[in-house]
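Quick check before the chapter quiz. The format below is the same one you will see on the exam, so make sure you can read both the input and the output lines.
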Amino acid sequence: MARTVSQIYALMVADVQADPILSTLVPAAPQLPSKRSIWGLFIYIFASAIFLLESLMDVFKSQVEHRPVPVGCKIKYCSFNMTPLHLKLFN
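Here is the expected output.
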């Protein structure tokens, strides 16, 4: 299950504030930084992208796990490899 944007954002801010080099560049505040700050905006954009990627991966995983097996087809023969039969159909 995908994490929320705010969870990812909070983890990224905590990592920035825990780093000794990066913590000198950003204001040290116990609460989350302003979303109007440039670095806060970049972190929010990356958190949103990570959330989107995790959500898409969850959907993909659920669709792959619940895919029906075609009737009369054995699992080892159901693949997307091009066989001579496929080549005949496309020519």
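If your answer matched, good. Helices lie at 5-18, 38-65, 84-90.
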